[in-house]
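Protocol step 4 of 5: obtain the predicted structure for the target chain.
Materials: sequence only (see below). No template structures provided, no constraints applied. The aim of this step is simply to have a reference model before the mutagenesis design in step 5. Sequence pasted as it appears in the construct record:
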Amino acid sequence: MAAAHPEFIAHCAELLTTVGTPRVRRMFGGHGFYVDDVFIAIASRERLYLKIDAMTRPQFEAAGSEPFVYAAATQAVALGYFSAPDEAMESAPLMQPWARLALAAALRARAAKPPASKRMAKARPSKGPAKTAPSKP
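Step 4 output (C-alpha cells):
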C-alpha cells in the first residue's frame, strides 16, 4: 500500500461518519478505517476501498468500482475490497449507502469467524505431557 495525503484520509473519515464513528489507523504504508471498531475500508494511493463480500460485490461492480490489488513477491493479490464509486467520494450522504454495504459485509465476515478464544485454543499446543496408549503386558 502507498500512503495517502493526510487531507485525503481526513476526507475519507468524514465520509464514513454517516454509518458510525470512524477511527483511522496506519497500516502497511496505507490506512485502515474502522467504524465503531469494525474494519470496513482501506486507503491507498489516494483511493478509498470498501469491504465487499459475495452479496455486495455485484453492486460495486455495477458501479464501475475496481478491486484493491497489491503486488506480493511472486503475484498480484486481490483482497475483499473494492474502490468507492467516484460520486460517493463527493459527500457523506452519497457515501452512506456504500459505507453501509461495507459495514454489512464486514459484520458478516466477523460473524463467520469462530470466537477468538476458539481460534487461540486451536493454535496452542495442549498443556501437559502427551498421553500415550497403555502398553500391553
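Step 4 remarks: The CA atoms of residues 115 and 121 lie 10 Å apart. The chain has a mean pLDDT of 86.
Proceed to step 5.
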